[in-house]
User: Fold this.
Amino acid sequence: MLLIMSGSYVQQELGAEFGSIPPSFLPLANKRLFKHQVSLGHDGHAIYLVLPEDFVFDKHDYEWLLRNKVTLIPVDSNLTLGQAIVTAWNLIGDKDDKGLQLLFGDTLFKKIPAGDDLVAISHSDDNYQWSFFYETELRAVSRENNKNVICGYFSFSKPNFFIRELVTSKFDFTAALKKYHDSYSLASIYVSDWLDFGHINTYYKSKVQYTTQRAFNELCITTKSVIKSSSNESKIEAESKWFETIPGELKIYTPMLLEPFDHIRKSYKLEYLYNTTLNELFVFSRLPNNILTNILISCLDFIDLCKEYHSIDTDKNILQDLFYEKTIERVSKYITDLNIDPNAKWNFNNNISVSINDILYDTNKFIPSELQYKTIMHGDLCFSNIIFNFRTGRIQVFDPRGLNHSGEISIYGDFRYDIAKLSHSILGLYDWIIAGYYIINLKNKTHSIEFKINIDNKLFEIQSTFVSIIKEKYSISEKSLYAMQIHLFLSMLPLHSDDKKRQDALFANAFRLYEIFKEAAV
Assistant:
């Protein structure tokens, strides 16, 4: 059996950035860590996940664990490691005879080492107190070198003996390990792919090795830099020019540009920043509302500073190009590809019945039409393109658009589009959909949609605060915010044809937003 020990909460340094969660619930590559850990099992072994007994699950996470046949074992979060292991062992009913694989909740490998009676070891350059394993001895605490560090995985062919030694050693894990080693000769096995998420420094170092990529971008990430390249040369050049051209005052909100666009390699280089993207903070953390609200305010501080730098061109309302015209073009492609009648009425959650054309007609009237000075615009200010530095209390942004509505390289645009993209995440809940936190039942034949996004109720308070701030600061009504969201979701549908379920969810979300739009304040 595989026993994942995540029965206490993360240390204070990690808790300050992610809230009070067990280590297996930390975010990694837009998933919780336990999803990666569970994938190491299922070779015929039962999987058990030990968690604090007072931890409250998100519904989505709980259902995922059940679907993947993970048995949950609640323990007192104040127990020592040894006490938690013994408690978990006693709570497990039928135990198979295949031994015990023990994985710490803050640990991940690409593959679990094969074999019985093993201790996984690796090396570390970090200045923490580690336990070290040698064939002749095991030392609980040492700083003498960075090799032979015990790295959170053990296998025991005689688990009952190990549990008994834990009890007789007064639940001292290291002492019990020594006694087991004396009787059954544990072998050390070196692993080069150890990912340690137990400390703030090791967490971010480990994340460097585990990054997500978009299909049209190529990322080369090291501990110091990110090289971004693409076959779409104009797009990458525009991004690089944005970083080069923005005023110095704005550069505290961006990574340092290390190398500008290279026409031969079709790439540019940024410094790598050891912080977390907002999509992971908002979807996966348990931070209090005041912290999340302050993060949103930092986003608006960035927009406000961008607004101070004007272009003289005010000849055209850019939003009509960025919203309505683009939406019509993209929706036309979507309905053609899927053979959908834009005038067909869809029944959404048995609450509303409306067609795509109805939605477009109603919402277009509330896209802001007032001419604005063109100011510096990021162009894709969604959560996945923003990180937050908890030490400075300031966001930093990447992946700017760098192109105007005509496809020309420019740092200028309509600041309201940045507000719309930010709203796309906090109101539109795009990042929750991408993370799979939804339930959908869409039937094309009967034009019916059942759809729900699984979110924490506390998010409604943050959304309400955000809407109020936007109304007060920028005179953009709640109805306009939701109108822009709906256009954004409809216009992105053809871009998600690689995943039909996700595409259906984004389509359904436009109807969810329309239902809110109908009741929103003008």
Observations:
- The mean pLDDT is 92.
- The radius of gyration is 26 Å.
